[in-house]
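Entry type: protein chain
Record version: 2
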Amino acid sequence: MPENKPPSPGRYIDPLVDFAFKKIFGSEPNKDLLIAFLNEVFRGSKVIADLTYDKNEHPGELKDEGAAIFDLHCTGQHGEKFLIEVQRGRQGNFKERALFYTSRVISGLAPKGKREEWAYNLSEVYLVALLEDFTLAIDDSPKYLHDICLCNRDTGKVFYDKLGYIYLELNKFVKEEAELQTGLDKWLYVLKNMSRMDKLPIYLRKSIFEKLFNIAEYTNLTKEERNMYDSSQKYRWDNKNVLDYAVNTAVSEAEHKNTIKIATEFKKLGVPPADIAKATGLSIQEIEKL
């Protein structure tokens, strides 16, 4: 398997590495960063005024890179209460996992008794997922934001508006600096590119981004935090190396099978083995065995 060593840390840590994602967005002192990001994600459909982190944590340990999950109790600008689960997704069966997690959140809302009095008065529940290196295959469009809800299949009319899934496919977000228009554009660009930057760009000269870049500066980490970040980054790159190798191997095997199929058809047509070898790249010995 070819080596794929992680790069040396730059001035800023990579927000998409688990440790960095949790440090930046997962603590009470930094909740203003998460509020600012989520308000851009919801694009006005919900406006978060405050949030608290649920005590039921889902630790994303190094052995399960990509498991950063936050359960959030949110208060809207009009005092309304709702729940948001934020995930960094890299796992397979992600749609199923998202349904499982939101189902768990919803079932946890039910009181142990007096359900008739409660009358299934559910809070709004949303899941926001950052998908770093895979797509959901929802459609063939280049759109990187998918806002999913329960609706009537025939009419498209919303059936239930208190459950939603917002997926952000970062590998489809390919805008350059000059193309950034919205606040969400700027956040996604920073998440993908901050680890390669050497200073805070002029177009991000706002207090919220100044705080973000200050927290993400590698030299501002403690020695223990630097070790944790380096380990998390190495694990992430090791996993990527394994995945890339598996994909390349699968592609090579598929191409070889297709070549064998073509050579077999040539042989049935009576094409000389030497000519088949020139056309397919197979050896004459391989062709004779077909």
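Comment: DSSP finds nine helices and six strands in the chain.
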